[in-house]
């Protein structure tokens, strides 16, 4: 934990935009000049920006507030700078409005990404957030694996820079997913890491392997979405919005009966999976827990007691999701290690380290499930 209390750390700062770095077509890093060489924050923290301060957004902000019936809140953005650096920086990804899918158009991020210029002045509030490295990280591990997707890499990039500076004995593996290579945030900075931190072409092998899977999966998804079956499904769901296939509104008794059935099935599968420790049964139990959670959430409008039930099964779903991620990642890493171990110029060492960590994560998830079952 940081010795600096939240009341001291969270404050308003007047900043000036010193630079705007275009990371990808929809993501920019804003570098701020604060006039203060020492800012008290931790790698991984975020700051907030209030849209009300921008005159250009005044009418749009008022319109959205009338539409929503409540005040627009400040937006939070993770900092990509690290505490030892002399500048403050945030990376912002432009939110998109998708007709029929997104309820409201984005307010602040399009302006920050596309219309922010050097010399622009604004007020930010910072700094806070629980997603940080513990002070005693070196006593807990010697290897940190960063698993990120999209703009989720921003706080990890800050932690990576800070750890390389202040915890040089730690090793790092940065596993990142995005739509294309051009969409990878910080790709240039990450590829400039010191070569002694990389054991073989690990990143290239992972990228190439996952990209081949992505291309095959994209082809399958495209074919499925172009099929008559999918189009019929969309048309049916659209008709159900105004004319649901119900003879009469469901009663609380009927909803409760169906929900209890889903809960009993989930409990049976959870108990069986925990007893055997079988990965396939644990995955099946996760799906049953998900159905029980959704059944409980369906009861919420008429039975507030279902909130605790939904929360319980959501915990199972989350923990077993972590377990399944570890199982799938372990399988992939083992296959990559075998391939790298027989390829000239490569070795399977790093993949083996990653494999062991994923196995440990899966075992931690199994232990957590047993604890939740009591």
Task: Name some characteristics of this structure.
Elongation Factor Tu (Ef-tu), domain 3, Rossmann fold, 6-stranded antiparallel sheet, two-stranded parallel ribbon, disordered N terminus, 15% strand, 374 residues, alpha+beta, 8 strands
CATH topology of the largest domain: Elongation Factor Tu (Ef-tu), domain 3
The CATH architecture designation of the largest domain is Beta Barrel
Mean pLDDT: 83
Give the helix level as a range of percent. Answer: 40-55%
User: How many separate domains make up the residues?
Assistant: 3
Number of helices: 12
Order of secondary-structure elements:
HEEEHEEHEHEHEHHHHHHH
Please report the first level of CATH classification, the CATH class of the largest domain.
Mainly Beta
Q: What is the strand arrangement across the widest sheet?
A: 4-3-6-1-2-5
β-strand percent reads 15-25%
Main sheet record: 6 strands, antiparallel
- End-to-end Cα distance: 30 Å
The CATH homologous superfamily of the largest domain corresponds to Translation factors
Could you tell me the radius of gyration in angstroms?
24 Å
Which spans have pLDDT < 50 for at least 5 consecutive residues?
Answer: 1-8
Q: Work out the number of β strands.
A: 8
The coarse overall form would be globular
Q: What structural category do the secondary elements indicate? A: alpha+beta
């Amino acid at each position: 934990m940081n010795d600096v209390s939240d009341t001291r750390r969270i404050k308003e700062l007047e900043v000036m935009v010193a630079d705007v770095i275009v990371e990808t077509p929809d993501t920019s890093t804003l570098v701020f000049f604060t006039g203060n060489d020492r800012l008290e924050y931790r790698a991984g923290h975020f700051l907030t920006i209030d849209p009300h301060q921008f005159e250009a957004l005044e009418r749009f902000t008022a319109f959205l507030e009338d539409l929503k019936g409540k005040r627009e809140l400040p937006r939070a953005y993770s900092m990509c700078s690290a505490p030892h650096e002399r500048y403050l920086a945030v990376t912002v990804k432009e939110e998109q409005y998708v007709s029929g899918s997104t309820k409201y158009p984005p307010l602040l991020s399009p302006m920050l990404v596309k219309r922010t210029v050097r010399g622009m002045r604004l007020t930010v509030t910072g700094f806070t957030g629980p997603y940080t490295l513990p002070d005693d990280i070196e006593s807990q591990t010697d290897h940190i694996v960063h698993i990120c997707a999209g703009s989720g890499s921003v706080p990890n990039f800050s932690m990576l820079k800070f750890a390389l500076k202040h915890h040089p004995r730690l090793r790092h593996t940065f596993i990142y997913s995005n739509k294309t290579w051009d969409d990878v945030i910080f790709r240039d900075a990450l590829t400039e890491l010191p070569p002694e931190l990389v054991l073989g072409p690990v990143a290239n092998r992972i990228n190439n392997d996952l990209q081949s899977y992505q291309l095959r999966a994209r082809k399958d998804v495209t074919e499925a979405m172009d099929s008559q079956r999918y189009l019929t499904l969309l048309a049916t769901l659209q008709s159900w919005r105004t004319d649901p296939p119900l003879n009469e509104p469901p009663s609380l008794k009927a909803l409760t009966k169906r929900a209890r059935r889903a809960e009993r099935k989930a409990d049976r599968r959870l108990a069986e999976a925990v007893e055997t420790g079988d990965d396939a049964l644990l995955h099946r139990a996760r799906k049953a827990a998900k159905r029980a959670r959704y059944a409980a959430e369906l009861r919420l409008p008429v039975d507030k007691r279902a909130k605790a039930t939904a929360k319980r099964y959501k915990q199972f779903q989350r923990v077993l999701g972590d377990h399944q991620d570890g199982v799938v990642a372990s399988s992939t890493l083992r296959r990559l290690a075998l391939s790298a171990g027989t390829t000239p110029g490569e070795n399977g060492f790093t993949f083996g380290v990653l494999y062991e960590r994923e196995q440990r994560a899966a075992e931690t998830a199994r232990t957590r499930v047993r604890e939740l079952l009591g």
